[in-house]
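Here's a chain:
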Amino acid sequence: MSEVAGKVCVVTGAASGIGRALALDLAGRGAKLALSDVDSIGLAKTVRQVEALGAEVKSDHLDVAEREAVLAYADAVAAHFGKVHQVYNNAGVAFQGEVERSQFADIERIIDVDFWGVVNGTKAFLPHLIASGDGHIVNISSVFGLVSLPGQNAYNAAKFAVRGFTESLRQEMLVAKHPVKVTCVHPGGIKTAIARSAGAPEGDDRVAYAEFFDKRLARTTPEDAARTIVNGVRKGKARVLVGADARFIDAFVRILGPGYQRVVATIAARTFPKATKEQTR
């Protein structure tokens, strides 16, 4: 048991990865859970696992990009449990592709889910969190909310936006003296399926990127990530960096400033020379 024992915690994107790990970690600490995802099969598996730990669970199919659905969902969760204490806006999708080759629809989908999904969840639940007298909003950005990479333009845009939105929100809660804490989370490489399921422009070799991510970048397990996040929330941290790589990148960008961009571009050109040449024809 811990400070979350008995509290109502909302986790979006709970069917797999960090979302499922968060649900299990919170269940193990005695929380009541409201879990959602567009993947009903994966969500059902998560529900079975947290129920086995004795958690009270409400599960729903939810696309966080659908604003009216999120607004109705927040009211339904509050009505079901009576209160809402913590919201983990975790749901997200990925896309790997250069601006020149990406379609508007590709970029729009990432912004709709990864940024507007966070805004929708925040706006929908904020009144309930204030009313609880002990609220906490946890918005999952990314290490790509700290550093930009070639081919990650849409994801970078969304995750940088989540960071700015969340940091401003935290300040607003402090100014208004509302009983709501706010945390922005920046996971590094996590061993999930996000790279393998990422979209890409037609003709791009997304398999090569996914293999590179899985073998070279994904160092932290979802379970370790969830533990770090929940512990950071328990301590009321404004920012939580998940993984040694996230801490390194944070320092790397701070030290080099804008100069980091040329360094990253040079590394990317050497790492994916074939893809770079083909994509610039």
Notes: The CA atoms of residues 208 and 271 lie 11 Å apart. The radius of gyration is 19 Å.
